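Long-time lurker, first post. I've been practising inverse folding by hand and with some scripts of my own, and I keep getting stuck on stretches where the structure tokens seem ambiguous. Below is the full token string for one chain I'm working on. Before anyone asks, I'm not after the true native sequence, just a reasonable design that respects the backbone. If someone could post their per-position residues I'd love to compare against what I wrote down in my notebook.
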């Protein structure tokens, strides 16, 4: 038999349950809409559904967070790897540590801010001025004015001069011995893209270098006709084949490298007279005439004497000067 209750429609938001149902909750009676055959009608609970949705949202946010964090870590790792690689490349080339940190041996100049890199633009005087100032400083002692007017102290030495010199006298060596192009007036060739580098040989007290025999084939192949029994020979070359190629081979403005004095360091200047405040060590300028532009060119110079490092000066940092030239 149909009653009015049979026509009651229930919205989705309510739940139809028996009082004996396990899900019956007495505290909900206050919110029920009535009783029908021992059943109560009360609103459906929404808290569990909301809780599930909240958990799902939290999990999604955590997943997104870890994804973003992973990408950030990956990018940082990539940046660090690139930075380390760049540092090593720079260190090996454009930021070479100076080889002048030694007590004696072969030294090079200009050396600005403790760096072995000589980098400049021939069209910009401000870019090479620090190198000119440094060369002026290190060639000051070779000024001819003082030496020529003090003949009682400075004497002209040649290949046959015997050592030791008379007490209180030292060999004369002036900027005139360093050639016509490697001086302040000619801006040491930097404005022409033909830079000069000053090499100075400083030895311990009582050490007299012994030149290689002119018949030594190994050294002769390096020095050629510049090998002399009266000089410590000097040679400069690229550290690698690519560097050597960048030094150039053309003779359009002279040889790729020009040495002055041509044969190197005269042995008459040794042994060193450190007890004489007027003693000045011998020097050689090397002018690079055809060095390539826009390249880091690593150069190694060696002072050759038979009693340097047991006849192998090319393997000792004492008798080597390393530097990098970058023009452009």
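-- Answer (accepted) --
I ran through it position by position. Result:
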């Amino acid at each position: 038999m149909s009653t009015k209750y049979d026509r009651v429609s229930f919205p989705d938001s309510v739940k139809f349950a028996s009082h004996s149902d396990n899900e019956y909750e007495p505290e909900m009676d206050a919110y029920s809409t009535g009783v029908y055959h021992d059943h109560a009608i009360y609103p459906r609970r929404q808290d569990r559904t909301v809780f599930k949705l909240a958990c799902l949202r939290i999990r999604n946010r955590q997943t997104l967070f870890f994804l973003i964090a992973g990408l950030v870590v990956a990018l940082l790792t990539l940046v660090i790897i690139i930075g380390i690689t760049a540092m090593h490349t720079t260190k090996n080339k454009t930021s070479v540590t100076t080889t002048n940190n030694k007590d004696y041996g072969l030294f090079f100049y200009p050396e600005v801010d403790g760096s072995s890199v000589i980098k400049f633009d021939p069209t910009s005087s401000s870019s090479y001025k620090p190198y000119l100032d440094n060369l002026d400083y290190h060639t000051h002692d070779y000024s001819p004015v003082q030496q020529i007017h003090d003949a009682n102290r400075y004497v002209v030495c040649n290949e046959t001069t015997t050592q030791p010199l008379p007490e209180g006298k030292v060999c004369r060596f002036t900027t005139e011995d360093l050639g016509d192009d490697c001086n302040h007036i000619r801006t040491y060739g930097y404005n022409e893209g033909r830079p000069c580098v000053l090499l100075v040989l400083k030895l311990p007290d009582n050490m007299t270098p012994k030149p290689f025999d002119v018949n030594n084939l190994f050294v002769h192949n390096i020095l050629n006709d510049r090998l002399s029994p009266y000089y410590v020979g000097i040679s400069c070359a690229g550290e690698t084949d690519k560097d050597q190629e960048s030094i150039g081979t053309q003779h359009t403005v002279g040889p790729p490298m020009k040495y002055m004095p041509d044969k190197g360091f005269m042995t008459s200047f040794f042994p060193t007279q450190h007890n004489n405040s007027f003693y000045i060590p011998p020097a050689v300028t090397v002018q690079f005439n055809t060095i390539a532009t826009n390249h880091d060119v690593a150069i190694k110079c060696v002072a050759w004497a038979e009693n340097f490092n047991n006849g192998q000066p090319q393997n000792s940092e004492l008798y080597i000067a390393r530097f990098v030239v970058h023009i452009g």
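A couple of notes from the structure itself: The radius of gyration is 42 Å. Confidence is low (pLDDT under 50) at residues 14-37, 86-95. Happy to go over any region you disagree with.
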